[in-house]
Amino acid sequence: MNAFDGATTVLGIVVGAYAAEITNQLWIISSGLGAALAMGLSGFAGAYMTEEAERTVSLKSLEKSMLSDLSNSVVGEASRFASFWTGIVDGVSPSVSAVVCLLPFILSFYGIFPMYLAIQLSIVVGLSLMFLLGVFLGRVSDRNVILHGVKTLCVGLVLTFVLLIFKLAK
Amino acid sequence: MYLSRSTMLRRLVLDVLKPHNPSVVELSQALSKLKGIEGVNIITYEIDQKVENVKIIIGGQKIDFEIVKKRLEDFGAVVHSVDEVAAGKRIIEEVRTPQDRSARL
User: Fold this and answer.
1) Is residue A75 less than 8 Å (CB to CB) from chain B?
2) What share of chain B is helix, strand, coil (3-state, %, to 5)?
3) Residue A22 contacts B where some CB pair is shorter than 8 Å
4) A133 forms bridges with which residues in the sheet?
5) Contacting residues of B for A67, CB less than 8 Å apart
6) Spatial distance between the Cα atoms of A15 and B90, rounded to a whole number of angstroms
7) Using CA atoms, how far apart are residues B64 and B58, in angstroms rounded to an integer?
8) Cα–Cα distance measured from residue A43 to residue A22, given in angstroms and rounded to the nearest whole number
9) B49:A67 CB<8 A
10) Measured between CB atoms, does B73 come within 8 Å of chain A?
11) Which among B31, B48, B50 is the top mutation candidate for probing chain A, defined by the most A β-carbons within 10 Å of its own β-carbon?
12) CA-based diameter of chain A, in Å?
């Protein structure tokens, strides 16, 4: 679900930049990439340290029951492996979704299409990602996929409308 | 007396304490892949909150106890006791003697 954070943050940056009438692609790309990097590092460090701490407690408790050191066994290895890869997934997913949302601006920067289209495309990509993440959540929890897609989409729509209201209020 | 590694262990019955994961299925598959082992049987006879006690019966032509023990330790398991060992060219089954309580009953 960290990919949701990435999409939401970049959507906020894009709509905020549109509300502030920023027309320079590089500013949006730089802020978006900065946020993507920060979310990636924060996602990795936060998830890794939390997982590692929780799994160490669990391993120590198991070692107490077994009266033996399990750090060199597959149980210890599995614990380290899971902590590391949870960190990687939690770090990479928001960065990837953020970069995907920024792609229209990168293409616009190279003159493939105009800025106004990049803003619209980026918003559409961000909202679509949110919807797809909701669909995925609905699928893994074996519930209504459309309903879950619409729920997560609503978060993005609320964010977009709030920022657009700021633009209208200016 | 020096016991050569080439001495043929034909059957091992072990009392083992192990975590719930890896499961007995994974453990049996890992043990059965070891050299000299032809078959493995694992029976769970006690389950606690975090660990379980299992009886492992291993049969083969040339079982290396140290390798079996090492593999079990790799899986986080501990050998509590070696309950039966059969070695040599032929497996000798347990026999009842008049001294056995069960034989007297």
Assistant:
1) yes
2) 20, 40, 40
3) no
4) none
5) 78
6) 81
7) 11
8) 29
9) no
10) yes
11) B50
12) 68
CA–CA distance, B12 with A159 (Å, rounded to integer): 67
Question: Does residue B78 belong to the interface with chain A, where contact is any CB pair within 8 Å?
Answer: yes
Q: Which residues of B touch A68 (CB under 8 A)?
A: 76, 78
Supply the pTM of this predicted model. 0.77
Complex prediction ipTM: 0.72
Q: pLDDT by residue (tens digit) across A5-17?
A: 999 999 999 999 9
pLDDT digits 0-9 by tens, A118-148: 999 999 999 999 999 999 999 999 999 999 9
Phi and psi for A160 in degrees, rounded to 5? -60, -45
Query: Tokens in use for A1?
Result: 């679900």
Among the residues of B1-105, which ranges form H helices? 24-32, 65-74, 101-104
Query: Concatenated DSSP letters for A129-160?
Result: HHHHHHHHHHHHTTS-HHHHHHHHHHHHHHHH
Q: Give me the residue label for tokens 């066994």.
A: A73
Q: Is residue A103 within 8 Å of residue A15, measured between CB atoms? A: no
Q: How many C-beta neighbours within 10 Å does residue B78 have?
A: 17
Q: Is the dihedral of CA A118, A121, A126, A129 positive or negative?
A: negative
* Bridge pairing between strands B78-87 and B37-47: unpaired
> Bridge partners of B41?
B57
| Residue A66, both tokens | 């077994």
**Interface check B76 vs A, CB under 8 A:** yes
